[in-house]
Amino acid sequence: QVQLVESGGGLVQAGGSLRLSCAASRRTLRSYGMGWFRQAPGKEREFVAAISWSGGSTYYADSVKGRFTISGDNAKNTVYLQMNSLKPEDTALYYCADRSVYRGTRYLTESYGYDYWGQGTQVTVSS
Fold first, then answer.
1. Coarse DSSP helix, strand, coil percentages of the chain, rounded to the nearest 5 percent
2. What is the pLDDT of residues 52-93, one digit of tens each?
3. Distance (Å, rounded) from C-alpha 50 to C-alpha 61?
C-alpha cells in the first residue's frame, strides 16, 4: 500500500504563512492526482485543494482561494500546500490524499474521491 506522510504544520499567528508537504514513501501503480483536506474538532472533513498530474490543473475551495497554493511533483510523489494570510478558521488537522483510480474531475472535492490518506498534520492559527 501507499504510505503518505504530511509535515510542516505548526502554530502561527493570524496573517502568517505555513507550507505543508506530503510525501509518499512508495509509489502507487498509478496516481492521477493528489489533494488536501482538513478537519477541525467537531466538524466534518472538508476539501481544501487538489492537483491533477495530467496538465497540472489545480482546484481550490472558495474559502482558501487566493490564499493557498497547491503544487507538486508526480515524479517525486510529493505535494505541497503553501498557506498564506492564515486565519483562525483555518485551524484544523490537514490531510493529504491520493487519487489512484481514474475519475476525471468527478468527486474531486469529496473524501470518497480519494483512495489513500496520510495521518494528518496539525495547523493552529491564533487570533
1. 5, 45, 45
2. 999 899 999 999 999 999 999 988 889 999 999 999 999 999
3. 9
